[in-house]
Specification:
- The chain is of the alpha+beta class.
- Helices cover about 20% and strands about 35% of the residues.
- It has nine helices and 25 strands.
- Strands 7-8-10-9-11-12-13-16 form an eight-stranded mixed beta sheet, with helices on both faces.
- A hairpin with a 3-residue loop joins strand 1 and strand 2.
Length: about 500
């Protein structure tokens, strides 16, 4: 009764000070009613004189649904109601029900739909580093031919590390999620503009992401230590690319709390290691390369990797997977001849031995060890198939295939589902009439009910009462995250 104390006092004053029809009743209007026996809501139609017929929805403590009763309401100095079964009520107060103010935000995105135009920025230098090379398009050549063509030319120099950035034209009002795309090529070849990566860049930018497809340091001598160092340098470079994007907030407006990583093959390996590796996990072979933030260290700031898209990648050290609660979507062919689906040495079928590449644990192992945090495995039963998103032809040409869009859609859905640690979704508290929104990442929220009333609201909580005879019944929460992103969620009741 406390929450209606002011309403009660006002209505009681009105009823006691007026003669005749003490209260003007409007047909079809919903009224809040307090009787000598209970509280509820009523809606009436005039029959004759001071008599009105309608439905009284009696509130029951803690119940979601009201009990509906057909009543006759008698208006006057001492208003009263009588139900069809003869029960009589003295009306102590009656006032028009005013629902709480509801603000429906003009746009709410879940980062699934392509709704923005895209601006492309090419060859942006994000760091300088010492290495062999940072771009080596394979031009359709075999892996072995690529290795043998470049191995004699292994000499280091100062390199410009570059990225292609894809920006949504979203009006600059909110912080954007950041997606880093990492190409494959066995840490020896490949490029940020490899087939499929510009297409993914444009697609995810159109959905609202700021996307950076990065080049990173490539090249190694044909031994395990050199290979491990090449893989670690890729991790350093991915971290430095993130630091660069987050540092230039005016231009990119990337949200450090919503970083996503996706890569194919070696890029998948780099994505997993960038998400989970810490300085304590640096391989012994790479201790002399500096820390994981050894490039662009001066502008680095904390960030949160929300999810990883691991496309036919792996990890060498599974213990790193315990360093974060980040979920992983792993996409992999069960018969991959290059990076093991389960565990083994990469490239064994090509080089004929396991001397060059260390043993690695593929997507099946990664998913098994991280499933409790929401990781998902998307296997393809394709024997002797490594690269899934494009077809390679004998003449060296390559074309994107149907798997490309399947993978794109899977990444999009997975990232959207993990956009916030505490997504704004309506939850019902057990079987009560109280509903809530987790306010951890939310700045403001408003509530609206259809087919009922909101009895009380307090930030992320709303107490509702539903009318059993309403043709449509639902509860909607609309609001804004701290990042500026808006949301809307509806639950049918």
């Amino acid at each position: 009764m406390k929450r209606f104390f002011i309403l009660y006092c006002f209505a009681a004053l009105v009823l006691s000070s007026c003669g005749g029809d003490a209260f003007v009743i409007n047909e079809g209007t919903l009224y809040r009613i307090i009787t000598d026996k209970d509280e509820g809501f009523g809606r009436f139609t005039r029959t004759s004189g001071s008599y009105w017929r309608g439905t009284y929805y009696r509130e029951t403590e803690g119940a979601l649904n009201a009990s509906a009763r057909d009543v006759v309401f008698r208006n006057g100095r001492r208003p009263s109601m009588e139900s069809a079964d003869g029960e009589k009520f003295r009306v102590e107060s009656i006032a028009e029900y005013e629902p709480p103010r509801y603000k429906e935000y003009p746009f709410a995105t879940d980062y699934r739909d392509s709704v923005f135009s895209v601006t492309e920025l090419h060859d942006i230098t994000y760091a300088k580093a010492y290495g062999y090379w940072s771009s080596f398009p394979d031009n359709g050549r075999s892996n072995l031919a690529i290795f043998m063509s470049r191995v004699p030319d292994l000499s280091k120099s100062d390199l410009d590390l570059t990225m292609d950035v894809y920006l949504p034209e979203d009006g600059g009002k909110v912080l954007r999620p950041l997606l880093i795309l990492i190409h494959g090529g066995a840490f020896f070849n490949g490029d940020k503009a490899s087939l499929g990566f510009p297409e993914w860049g444009r697609h995810f930018a159109a959905a609202g992401y700021v996307v950076a497809s990065v080049n990173y340091r490539l090249g190694f001598h044909l031994n395990t230590i050199s290979v491990e160092r090449a893989g670690f340098r890729a991790v350093q470079d991915v971290n430095s690319a993130i630091a660069f994007i987050l540092h230039d907030r005016e231009r990119f407006r990337a949200d450090p709390e919503r970083v996503f990583l996706a890569g194919t093959s070696a890029g998948g390996i780099a994505a997993l290691n960038a998400a989970f590796m810490r300085d304590a996990n640096i391989p012994k072979s790479s201790k002399g390369e500096g820390g994981i933030m050894g490039v662009n260290e001066g502008i680095a700031k904390p960030f949160k990797v929300r999810a990883v898209g691991n496309m036919w990648g792996a990890v060498e050290d599974t213990t790193i997977l315990g360093n974060a609660r980040t979920p992983v979507l792993s996409i992999h062919s069960t018969g991959d001849p290059i990076v093991p689906f389960g565990e083994g040495h990469p490239f064994t079928k090509i080089f004929g031995n396991d001397v060059i590449f260390p043993k690695m644990f593929g997507s099946a192992a990664v998913t098994r060890l991280t499933r409790s945090r929401g990781s998902v495995l998307m296997p393809y039963d394709l024997p002797e198939r490594h690269t899934l998103h494009l077809d390679e032809h004998e003449d060296g040409s390559r074309l994107l295939n149907s798997h490309f869009r399947e993978i794109e859609a899977a990444l999009k859905d997975f990232f959207s589902a993990n956009m916030f640690a505490h997504p704004a979704k309506i939850e019902r508290l057990q079987s009560s009439n109280i509903f809530k929104i987790d306010m951890t990442d939310v700045k403001t929220v408003s509530w609206k009910v259809e087919g009922g009333v909101i009895l009380e609201r307090n930030g992320g909580r709303a107490e509702v009462l539903m009318f059993p005879d309403a043709p449509s019944r639902s509860l909607t929460a609309s609001g804004e995250y701290h990042s500026g992103i808006t949301f809307m969620d509806t639950m049918d009741l």
